[in-house]
Amino acid sequence: MEKQEAEDDLRRSRSERHRLHITPAHPPGPLIDRVTNGWRGDVKTAANPPTGDDYEPGICDFEDEGSCPNVSRDLVRSRRFRRMMALVLLLLLVAYYAWQAYLRPRLQQEWNFKEGFLPGRVNGTYGIARAGDFDGTTIRDIHPDLLPGGVADHQGKRRLVFIGDIHGCRKELLHLLHSIDFDPTTDHLIATGDVISKGPNSPGVLDELIKVGAESVRGNHEDRLVEAAKTLLSTDLQAPSAATTSKGYAKDAALLKELKPRHMRYLHDMPLMLRIPALPLAKKRKGKHHIAEDIIVVHAGLVPHVPLDRQDPYFVMNMRSIDHKTHVPSALHETKTGNSKPWFDVWNWYQDRLDRGRSVGGFHVYSYAEWLEKQIQEDGWFGKLRGSVLSKALRKLNPQVAVYGHDSKMGLQVHRWSKGLDSGCVSGGRLTAMVLDARGETEVVQVGCKNYR
């Protein structure tokens, strides 16, 4: 009975499934067909590119996430990329500012200084430099016994004392010498010229200089007086002619009446330039208050790279500026060309170039050494070899320090390669001394002056 009921239930179940069209969860067939791994249906785009009439393959396919526009969009949205671009922009701005504010002006200044030395420039390095007439000694070397640390000063106790324009201010001169404890037995006094005129006591200043054995280069006032004496002393000073009635001429005539023969001999004996060799005990080191190189004392200035014997005497006693393109000097601070620079700026640039060992091979040929170099060149390999060896030795130029006065408008100017000591004493400024010891150390001492103008 129970068996019969079970068979009836089975038949009813089959009949109901047939009526509802219900199919089994898995159709009949091999089991491998029922596996649903994703890799079996994965189709690679590269291997099987899509096809269609509207499809055009390229790097700017917006449907492709790896295309150029989509990658660029993601890159721009990246915070890291924006920071990097901001840094690059900042570096560009800094580089532009450095070029405009520092590099470009320095390069322009370097060229402005250099172009006057080149042979291609008209009158470059003072192309008209051919010395000139000078009634007196052009170049004098200091006596070896007076050199600090020299043959007569093994212990290095001697000093050199350089003094700016005194202009007849005897009282201030004595005050200054007292301030530096000047001792004629160990100190040597050197004046930068213009020791006379304008002030109250020119004969008294000359007497003091003669008494202490001082030397002085000739300034423009001494030179004018020496030249004036050639005519004034041979005429009646009380009755000047129409050609001798200028204010300067009258002052020269009055001063000549006060001067004695010893004064005139001292003035005429003043050299145009005084040369001092490097101090034996001075060690070379940088600094504007240390001197270990040769010293050239002049009244007004020098044209750099031009040999001393080819310097124009008038400008050595009168120059204040120099044209940086032609190197033609001027007695004025500014000229109409607009190219004027203080002569000591060009001088300092040139000496610094020599000190750093920079080449001057392309500069003008002026010195005897360079002339001799051309004479020793011979044909053949031996002559060329000898010439190249000697060429390096002859082209070795050493920097020099210029000590000068004359330019009271610029005042005290202390640089490494130039020392300007005229500080306008006669006009109520100060009288300046620079004391140099045997080891090259310098000290600047000044005293106040009364205005005598």
From TrEMBL:
Record's keyword annotation contains Transmembrane helix? yes
Zinc-finger as UniProt keyword: no
Write out the GO MF terms. Answer: endopolyphosphatase activity; phosphatase activity
- Tell me which residues make up the Calcineurin-like phosphoesterase domain: 159-407
Q: One Pfam family this chain carries?
A: Metallophos
Q: Which InterPro entries match?
A: Ap4A_hydrolase, Calcineurin-like_PHP, Metallo-depent_PP-like
**GO biological process annotations for this chain's record?**
polyphosphate catabolic process
Stretches of Basic and acidic residues bias are at 1-13
Which keywords are on file for this protein? Membrane, Transmembrane, Transmembrane helix
- Where are the annotated segments for Disordered? 1-27
Q: What is this protein called?
A: Calcineurin-like phosphoesterase domain-containing protein
Question: Which regions span the lipid bilayer?
Answer: 81-99
Q: Which GO terms describe its cellular component?
A: cytoplasm
